[in-house]
Amino acid sequence: MIRVMLPYHLRKLAGVDGEVTLEVEGVVTQRSVLDALEARYPVLCGTIRDHDTLKRRPFIRFFACEEDLSHEPPDQPLPEAVTSGKEPFLVIGAIAGG
Amino acid sequence: MSKVRVLVGTRKGAFILESDGRREKWDVSGPFFTGWEIYHLKASPADPNRIYASQSSGWFGQVIQRSNDGGKTWEAPGGGVTQSPQGFPMGESNKFVYDTSGQTGKPLTTHQWYDGTQHPWEFKRVWHLEPSLTDPDTVYAGVEDAALFRSTDGAHSWQELSGLRGHGTGPKWQPGAGGLCLHTIILDASDSNRIYIAISAAGAFRTDDGGKTWKPVNRGLKSQYIPDPTAEVGHCVHHIAKNPSRPNLLFMQKHWDVMRSDNAGDSWVEVSGNLPTDFGFAIDVHAHEPETVYVVPIKSDSEHFPLDGKLRVYRSGTGGNEWEELTKGLPQKHCYVNVLRDAMSVDSLDKCGIYFGTTGGQVYASADEGNSWKPLIEHLPPVLSVEVQTMR
What is the mean pLDDT of residues B190-206? Predict the structure, then answer.
């Protein structure tokens, strides 16, 4: 069971409260988690990563286990604490503006 | 009893104001989509309860929302009606994919970047939604980077009308300060195959075959800020408006200059006349008098606020050139707001109502053709768009 924490606006868009839990088949990576997330909540397609290139949108960040994983390759396995459900995979709206 | 509904898009959400035909007491609902930029909302003329909204965010991209009950409830098309077994919305409507060349699969064209080099088209957001005059499920979207899309399934899916971008002048289009945006779409009520669009900074274009082929319609425009002031394309057209009863009569607020065309855009003449400044964004036409035009002059391209801090609407009852200032009820000192291109609209009651929103968060209305004004609401986030529905 993978735990995903979405930012406020995406929780509202998807119609969920709190964390989302997902079953992910095979190796747990950024890509497989986001694939599972978008399959369950299609309204989130395009809001976290580009529709076609599947690249992370510029002002989105991925954190887990107190580390910034935003620049890690999308197919790199996520930390064991995330795959075991001990820690959530955090989707963050980057701080910007004033 | 007739009813008026005002759809207001702002930097931080949408609001809906409703009144009966007297237009004295207004009920406000919203905010909807709080925290998101709502560039535009517009209702279907064929079904007044069908409203489309463009919801966008620098963080999360573009979402299209739709209401089937006059704005009480909303869904990303496919969501709400179609739900997953767990009851979650299943919508996916925010996909705008530019066409590529049928022969090579490569990008259709490039446009001019700020540094003069060629740049690929990149989707940013939907600026304007224009529902079909006859079919509630058909809606057009003007997007940044400039292109025209159409949905025929109630905004579930979108297809580009790529004849516009592909007609040949695309490499000369360049972004204005607000981006390379297609912000104006006018469907001709007398000819279902005729559509006008406008792009900053490219100009005005027209199709006479339902969007397959397009041509620039910018003859007569003069823009000192481009190398060839009378070029075929490159003009920063801010907005175009028309009254449906005179199909070939168009009015335009350009970056500078107010223009008119009597031949469906084939040629334009300047009608700025005695305006104190002819820079501005918004322009609209009286619902019953096709030669009565309204603009809100803004000081200059460097200073986007009313001249002398006085918020004044100008009206011409002669199709331009002769303008009268309308100030009753509007702030006449210390006013430094802007009125953006899609933030003015009219109702079609017997005494035509005029409405506009400001970047200071006020929505002003006149129930007497502009002679006097009052704020319907104040202290909203900056207003990006105002559309009005008249229901009888």
Answer: 97
Q: Which are the contacts of B185, defined by CB distance < 8 A and separation ≥ 6?
A: B128, B130, B140, B142, B148, B195, B196, B197
* Tokens 């690249």 sit on residue: A55
Q: Do B92 and A45 touch (CB under 8 A)?
A: yes
Inter-chain touch B63–A47, beta carbons under 8 Å: yes
Q: How many domains does chain B have?
A: 1
CATH code where residue B316 lies: 2.130.10.10
How many C-beta atoms surround the C-beta of residue B101 within 10 A? 12
Q: Give the chain A residue nearest B55 (alpha carbons).
A: A13
Range of the domain at B244: 44-338
CATH for the A2-93 domain, from 1.10.287.70, 3.10.20.30, 3.40.190.10, 3.60.110.10:
3.10.20.30
Taking only the tens place, the pLDDT of each residue in B306-324 is 999 999 999 999 999 999 9
What pTM value is reported for the model? 0.94
Give the residue numbers in B contacting A (CB under 8 Å), as ranges: 35-36, 57-63, 76, 78-79, 84, 86, 88-92, 94-95, 97
Q: Sheet holding B269-270: strands in order across?
A: B237-241, B250-254, B258-261, B269-270
Contact between B107 and B100 (Cβ < 8 Å): yes
Strand partners, B10: B13, B383
Instruction: Please report which confidence band the pLDDT of residue B225 belongs to, taking 50, 70 and 90 as the band edges.
Output: confident
The ipTM of this complex is 0.90
Quick one: how many helices (H) and strands (E) in chain B?
0, 29
Q: What is d(CA B47, CA B45) in angstroms, rounded to the nearest whole number?
A: 6
Residue B142: strand, helix, or coil: strand
Confidence label for B144 from pLDDT (cuts 50, 70 and 90): very high
pLDDT digits (tens, 9 = 90+) for B260-293: 999 999 999 999 999 999 999 999 999 999 999 9
Torsion of CA B57, A7, A42, B70, to 10 degrees: -60
Question: Does residue B201 have a cis peptide bond before it, meaning omega lies within 30 degrees of 0?
Answer: yes
Bridge partners for B250 per DSSP: B261
